[in-house]
Amino acid sequence: MCQSDAQWDELFQQLDKQIAGYERFKGKLGGGPQALTACFQFDRDFDRLAERVGGYAHLKMTEDQANSTYQAMVARFQNLASRASQAASYIRPEILAACKGATAAHRAPRPRGRREASRRAVRADRGGSA
Asked: Residue 110 maps to which CATH number?
């Protein structure tokens, strides 16, 4: 949590600037485990800071719901959370697309090598189906 309203404002500004960080992972999550791990770590760190900022604002508002300062803090945080969610909205679809591509590649028929061709030739010589 935050120690004061001033600290909350500092952390809020820090969090607001971090939203742009989601852009560096866009279009790269199917590129391998390193990109996916880096994105997950960034998202985890963002969420941890957001929990501190949002938690403080909500707790202060519940202390005195008539206090417009804390109502404004909650509203600012909700706006920030909405923008962060929008900035990160590509993550799940990219992961699913990468998984779908990997699954399709795994299911694709494999080219038959010389060993399979030899087996077919032996079966044909014996009168079996090739």
From this structure: 1.20.140.70
